[in-house]
Amino acid sequence: MATDFKSIPIIDIGPLLSKSDDPDMGSDPGVAQVVEQLDRACREAGFFYVKGHGVPDPLVKEVRSIARKFFHLPYEEKLKIKMTPEAGYRGYQRLGENITKGVPDLHEAIDCYTEIKPGRYGALGKPMEGPNQWPQYPPNYKELMEEYISLCSELSRKIMRGIGLALGGSPSEFEGDRAGEAFWVTRIIGYPGVPDANGDNKTDNDVGCGAHTDYGLVTLVNQDDDITALQVRNLSGEWISAPPIPGTFVCNIGDMLKIWSNGLYESTLHRVVNSNAKFRVCVAYFYEPNYDAAVEPLDFCIQKSGGVRKLGKAVYGEHLVAKVQTNFA
Ligand SMILES: N=C(N)NCCCC[C@H](N)C(=O)O
Ligand SMILES: O=C(O)CCC(=O)C(=O)O
Ligand SMILES: [Fe+2]
């Protein structure tokens, strides 16, 4: 929400992807153009669409389609993979179970996370330990999602190379002990439609997901292509819609990138209001730092901000656990 943007830019990241394994990618003119667009979008809105991302369209559609089938199963069936604190907050949560700023959200979801083996991060990792809980139906649910998640991870890593350059650093800024072992979060989300959504009777005060920021580095939103529901807040407090654009992901900045960039890039507030009659599905993939990463403003970002350090330090895993524990309080 750094400016009064009125729409969200579209960036074709094809040229970045084609050079993203070249350490000298920054001197490629095609890459430089993408990097400039990334910098602008991250400063002005903290949100952009990515096109030319290379994740096959049939797979993008299939993950939404199996999600829709799961949400339409009887409640008893969905409860077989019920989310509990003991299960590391992994699994299915019913409508109203997730809370944002004290208000229950009008969505149901399956939450999954990078699996953490017992003891891997000591006490820091304990609350999130555990295997994911995948639906039994359809039988290939787990395999399909794991393939999708792995493509989203590769794509996000490449976007982060562009963002490293966009900030004025190197393409490997977010590798190693920052995000070389990036933790991921995936939320498979269903938002009920409004029963009577025509004209004056429109009930748009039922919020699917209250205003929040995302927690990590970048998010890739795979949303239904016929419903506009995601809204992004600009500097004046207006809610700017992020309508679906087929063939793209909506990509936005998370809290940890805000800290590393010393606030040059903002994690922008956004919310979801489904005022359509149809059930809306979204699969959100979150690319985050290493679970145990200590995150504080990068020196070169402080220099770019006139030498003023604007944000304090956070440990990513602590930030995640604090969020997750209050999401279900
Ligand atoms: N992993 C991420 N980013 N999840 C976003 C969920 C936002 C809603 C949540 N209740 C909250 O208040 O954060
Ligand atoms: O449903 C959407 O479009 C976005 C969901 C979201 O913002 C989130 O899960 O963090
Ligand atoms: Fe979000």
UniProtKB/TrEMBL annotation:
One of its GO terms (cellular component) is cytosol. PANTHER family: 2-OXOGLUTARATE (2OG) AND FE(II)-DEPENDENT OXYGENASE SUPERFAMILY PROTEIN-RELATED. The keyword Cytoplasm applies. This is Fe2OG dioxygenase domain-containing protein. It comes from Linum tenue. Belongs to the iron/ascorbate-dependent oxidoreductase family. The keyword Chloroplast does not apply. PROSITE patterns: FE2OG_OXY. It holds the Pfam family DIOX_N. It catalyses: L-homoarginine + 2-oxoglutarate + O2 = 6-hydroxy-L-homoarginine + succinate + CO2. Residues 181-289 form the Fe2OG dioxygenase domain. One of its GO terms (molecular function) is 2-oxoglutarate-dependent dioxygenase activity. Its main location: cytoplasm. It is found in: Cytoplasm, Cytosol. Keywords: Cytoplasm, Dioxygenase, Iron, Metal-binding, Oxidoreductase.
